[in-house]
Amino acid sequence: MRKPTQRAPTAGQARPKYPCHVRVVDVNSQPETVPTIDDHSDVLIIGGGQAGLSAAYFLHRFGLAERYQLLDGAPGPGGAWQFRWPTLTLAAANRVHDLPGLGIVEALGADCDSFPAATAVPDYYRRYEHDFGLRIRRPVRVRSIQAEDPGFRATLTDGREITARLIVNATGTWDRPFIPYIPGAADFGGRQLHTHDYVGPDEFAGKRILVVGAGISAIQLLIEIARNAEGVQTFWCSRTEPEFNPKPFTPEQGRAAVARVEQRVRAGLPPRSVVSVTGLALTPTIAAARADGILQWRPMFTRITESGVCWDCGTGSPTAPPDHLDVDVIFWNTGFRSALDHLAPLHLRSAGGGITMTGRLATVVAADPRIQLLGYGPSASTIGANRAGREAARVVRDQLAELG
199 lies in a domain? Predict the structure, then answer.
C-alpha cells in the first residue's frame, strides 16, 4: 500500500478530499468540442501526460502561469494511462509516480491500488489539473512545428496555426507502437495486434497465441492470458531472453541505468528504455508462472507464414526449436518509439539516428536549445518525468529572462 505524500498546498489554495470509490467517467465518451487556444504564447507545451503536467506545475511555481499553454491531443486527462487495458490495476502498473505537489494517495485515498489504472490515473490527473489551474487545451493535436523567426509556428490538425517562442515537447510514445519487420508478415492468415490494442484475455479463449517481447508488458500479459483465457494455448519468444533479478532493485542500479540511457542521447544515438538496461524483477507472480511452465521462452522466429511462424524455415534440427509453430494470434509486445513526427520539419535528428540532447538533465535539444524534449531518453520513466518537468521549467524561466 502506498503511503500518502505530505505536501503543503500553494498559498491560499484549499484542496478538496475525494473518496477513492468515486466512479470515473470514461474520457472517451466525452463529446468533442473545439477548444479555445491562444494564437501566441511564450511557451508551448505539447502533451498532457506526467512530464507535461509537471512542467506546467513548475512554470506556475516560477511565476510563469500566464506565459504558456499546454496542448493535449487526448480526449481527456490521464495521458496514455486512459488507453490502457481494463485489467491493469494501479498495483500491477509499472509504478504510477506522484505528480509534484499532490500525491496519488492524497488525491484518491489509500485503498486505490485495486482500481483500474485506465480510470484511476485520469481521475487523479483531472483533479491535479483543476487544483493547480493548469492552462490545458484539449483535444488539440499538433501536426507540425516549423522554425519561424523569432520562434516557431505550430500547425494543428484542424488547420489552425499558432506561434510560440519556446517549445517543451512531452508527447510520450503511446501513439507510436513499434512492430519489427519480419519477412512474411503480410501472409499471416490469423490476427496480429500490439500492446497498444489489447483489451483483455477473454478474446483469446480457445486460441493459440504467440506473445512476442521481453519487457514487463509482455510478461504480465502472457501470464494474464494464460491464467484467464479459457482453453488458450500460449507461446512466448523474443530476440533476447530476459534476465529476472531475484534481488530488490536498488536506487544505485536505477541511477546507473538512467546514466547509460542518458549517455546514448547525449551522443545522438536512439534512446533505449530504462527497463531494457535494468532487467526485470523476479516477483512472486513471475516466479509462480515460471514454476507452472507459462514462461517457456523460445528464440525469435525468422519468418511469418500463413499459419504461424518458423525458425530458419526448412532447415530443421533435433536440437533446435520446432521448425514451424502454428498459431492463431501473434501478439506483439515490442515497445514504442517516441512520438516526434510533428517535429520532423525541424530536422533535429543527428547522423547517429537519434536527437542529440544536452543540458543538466539532457532535456535540451543541442541543435536548437529553444526546444526541450521530455519523456525522451532518461526522462522516459515516471520518476524521471517529474525531474525533467522541473528542469524544463527552470530552463524556460532562464531563457525568457534572457529574451526579455
Answer: yes
Higher-confidence position of 253 and 66: 66
DSSP run (H or E) holding 233: strand 233-238
Q: Is 170 within a domain?
A: yes
Query: pLDDT by residue (tens digit) across 228-287?
Result: 999 999 999 999 999 898 887 777 777 788 888 899 999 999 987 666 666 788 999 999
* Amino acid identity, position 370: R
Would you tell me the crossing angle of helices 50-61 and 382-403 to the nearest 10 degrees?
A: 40
Q: Of the spans 202-206, 283-287, 381-385, which averages the highest pLDDT?
A: 202-206
Residue 336 forms beta bridges with which residues?
177
Residues 234 and 288 in one domain: yes
| Enclosing domain of residue 224 | 185-246+282-332
Region of residue 337 (left: phi > 0; alpha: psi -120 to 50; beta: else): beta
297-335: b (≥16 Cβ within 10 Å) or e: ebeebebbbeebbbbebeeeeeeeeeebbebbbbbbbbb
Q: What is the CATH number of the domain that holds 299?
A: 3.50.50.60
User: β-strands 364-365, 357-358: how paired?
Assistant: antiparallel
Contact indicator for 335, 94 with CB cutoff of 8 Å: no
Whole-number Å distance between alpha carbons of 73 and 70:
10
313 within some domain: yes
